[in-house]
Design brief:
The protein is an all-alpha fold and 216 residues long. It has helices at 2-38, 40-48, 61-70, 75-86, 106-115, 130-147, 152-161, 163-171, 188-207. It folds into two domains: 2-38; 52-214, Lysozyme.
Length: 216
């Protein structure tokens, strides 16, 4: 009889331990989920060190398609730039002051506004507006794409490092536009940026293959 009671007590203890373990595991999982939600942008930024955002988001598709069509430019490349620049965070601000989805600098904003002869009332602060940011960023991408002989790699290089820098690399023979090689780019930071953008672009082409909205 005493042995039976002892066995029941042991079963109860095991049952309690099992219940406590389940509660602890559930609590840990809840904390992990909460941290992922709170720090999703930081996590995406770290993941981007190894390539494009693994989810290949197509947020703001309406604006991307609208302004890609307006500029006769591949919307998948616009997505690749947004993915790499801000991970689709419209409030993103870089350490050097670039703003919004496509990380437009104030100097670039002023240049684009002038080139577009845009007389609408808005300021650099409005680069946090997703539609205006995509409109301006896509315009700049198309300009660079035409300027650098329809090279997506050089477009990405100029978008990141500036068109003057790319002009210099071409004029001094450092980079050959007709035979582009990533290893020829003298800036390792820009080289890594081109790599990430092109990787994202290729993934978007795979993801959106067969989608009539993205057919030229």
């Amino acid at each position: 009889m005493a042995q039976t009671k002892s066995k029941k007590k042991k079963r109860k203890k095991k049952g309690k331990k099992h219940t406590v373990l389940i509660i602890v595991i559930a609590a840990v999982m809840a904390v992990i989920v909460l941290l992922c939600i709170v720090f999703k942008d930081k996590i995406a930024e770290k993941l981007s060190d190894y390539g494009p955002n693994i989810f290949m988001t197509t947020d703001y598709e309406e604006y991307v398609l609208k302004y890609a069509k307006e500029n006769d430019f591949d919307p998948r490349f616009v997505f690749a730039i947004i993915n790499t620049e801000s991970h689709f965070n419209p409030k993103a601000t870089s350490d050097v002051g670039a703003r919004g989805l496509m990380q437009i600098m104030e100097e670039a904003y002023n240049w684009i506004k002038f080139r577009k002869n845009d007389e609408r009332v808005h300021t650099f602060d409005d680069m946090y507006d997703p539609e205006l940011n995509i409109e301006y960023g896509t315009f700049l991408l198309k300009y660079l794409y035409d300027k650098f002989d329809h090279s997506y790699e050089l477009t990405a290089a100029a978008y990141h490092g500036g068109m003057n820098a790319v002009d210099k690399w071409i004029s001094d023979g450092t980079v050959d536009p007709q035979n582009f090689k990533l290893e020829d780019v003298p800036s390792s930071v820009t080289s890594n940026y081109i790599y990430k953008v092109m990787k994202a672009y290729n993934k978007y082409k795979d993801k959106l293959e067969g989608d009539l909205n993205y057919e030229g």
